[in-house]
Specification:
Layout lengths: L1 H5 L3 E3 L24 E2 L3 E4 L2 E4 L8 E4 L3 E4 L2 E7 L13 E3 L10 E3 L4 E5 L1 H7 L3 E5 L10 E2 L6 E7 L4 E5 L3 E5 L7 H5 L9 E3 L1 H36 L1
């Protein structure tokens, strides 16, 4: 198990817009907004499930590790969308219901970090819960890019410290701390202490590919069961 983990590297996530090694740079140098929660996403709060765009500073949001935490700041933006000319690499991803524990289908921006749970994560990284860029999910269980027909409202939730929030019942999204990344901050390795980690896009895609292979093998095994049962019944006669 440890040898598998040593073959891969996790990179530290600072926030939704100020990068560290979490991303390989495919989106750098552009004005396109590629992380944050899309309007309409439901987030767990002290008053139940609420649309992320309706939240206000001070609202209590349920987090994965710290229970209810107050929102320090909320950023509202619009992603660029020019139907027919937006490069495909910047399209958001459509995620069918159930892929991430989400009760309903949802839309993710490609750089938004999301949590996946798998036995392969345990085998590769000694942790079944792994944060990956949403882009790595393309092709997994029906996840696909979709060309936006109109600008998408994007909301970034900021807490005092980094948090994972529950969305659409079972999905978990990374949300940044309430600070702006600076050049000095990016160079300060001690700032990584206690933060969440996210796989680089290359390693995340390796993990998702392995998960897809595992699902394929499971499906083949299930398809083979009726024939195996018939053979066992024949030999038992």
């Amino acid at each position: 198990m440890k040898m598998l983990g040593q073959m891969f590297q996790k990179s530290f996530v600072r926030d939704a817009h100020g990068r560290s090694g979490a991303w390989d740079g495919a989106f750098h140098g552009t004005d396109l907004l590629s992380s944050g929660l899309v309007a309409g996403t439901q987030v767990a709060t002290q008053h139940g499930w609420r649309n992320v765009e309706a939240l206000q500073q001070g609202d209590q949001v349920l987090t994965f590790d710290a229970g209810l935490q107050p929102l320090c700041r909320i950023s509202h933006s619009w992603s660029f969308a020019n139907h027919g000319t937006t490069p495909k690499c910047h399209w958001p991803l459509f995620v069918p219901a159930g892929v991430l524990g989400n009760e309903a289908a949802m839309t993710l921006l490609p750089e938004q970090s999301v949590m996946v749970e798998s036995d392969l994560g345990e085998a590769m990284f000694d942790d079944p819960f792994v944060l990956i860029p949403a882009l790595a999910l393309e092709g997994y269980k029906g996840v696909e890019r979709r060309n936006p027909h109109r600008p998408i409202e994007v909301v970034v939730l900021h807490f005092e410290t980094e948090q994972l929030v529950f969305a659409n019942v079972g999905a978990l999204f990374h949300c940044p701390a309430d600070h702006h990344t600076t050049i000095l901050g990016l160079l300060d390795e001690t700032d990584d202490a206690g933060g969440y980690e996210v796989l680089s896009i290359a390693v995340a895609q390796m993990l998702v590919d392995a998960m897809m292979d595992e699902d394929h093998l499971d499906a083949e095994w299930l398809r083979a069961q009726p024939q195996r049962q018939r053979q066992e019944a024949r030999y038992a006669i």
